[in-house]
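DM between two lab members

TW: hey, do you still have the ABC transporter ATP-binding protein entry open?
JB: yeah, one sec
JB: this one, 245 aa:
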Amino acid sequence: MTAPLLTLEGVHTHIGAYHILHGVDLEVPRGQLTMLLGRNGAGKTTSLRTIMGLWHASQGRIHFDGKDITAGATPDISQLGIAYVPENMGIFADLSVKENMLLAARAARSVDDIDTKRLEWIFDLFPAMKKFWLHPAGKLSGGQKQMLAVSRAIVEPRKLLLIDEPSKGLAPAIIANMIAAFRELKQTDTTILLVEQNFNFAKQLGDTVAVMDDGKIVHRGQMAELAENEDLQTRLLGLSLAAHH
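TW: and the structure you got?
JB:
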């Protein structure tokens, strides 16, 4: 067994007076897609933000690829090869799709510096990015903005993608496109930690799963096992797939 790419050990996070994470223990296996599930308010987004250094752990350790990043600054953590796609997508509405992509490609000074093969690969994943290349990002539909947010995160090779609720508010056809794109991403040895509320989305993509409740990890295992066990789904998430087709 290779060592996990990312580990959180006993991580606590306070935001002001609020104690959000209560000793999170999490392993993200290298080269796999790990789903982070849980009810609203369980601490999923806080976990991603803490990994990214946007909020700092008040206790515990975070290791990424053999390095301790617990107290790291967000730009330094990003330089190690981690990209974060927040729930609000973080795109620049007044800039074109092209300009958004160029900003995300840190090594590029102009679009000509972006790896052409990689750009074509992204256009294959998300044809709307090519179609609306010169359009202001703010004019894109919700689904297209989400595609742009993911495209920005993968414009350069990354070791780890942290993605917060990519299917939220999207039409079924767009979700199907997202699932196909993430499946392709999984073939590129990119490790992904993905927060999701849509269980159907999660079960189609996840290799491993961690379920959060009240700021702690309460279940870890294979996604396929959780997808087949309705009793466990109901106990952990208050749902069963039978009621959520």
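TW: got it. The CA atoms of residues 167 and 175 lie 6 Å apart. Confidence is low (pLDDT under 50) at residues 241-245.
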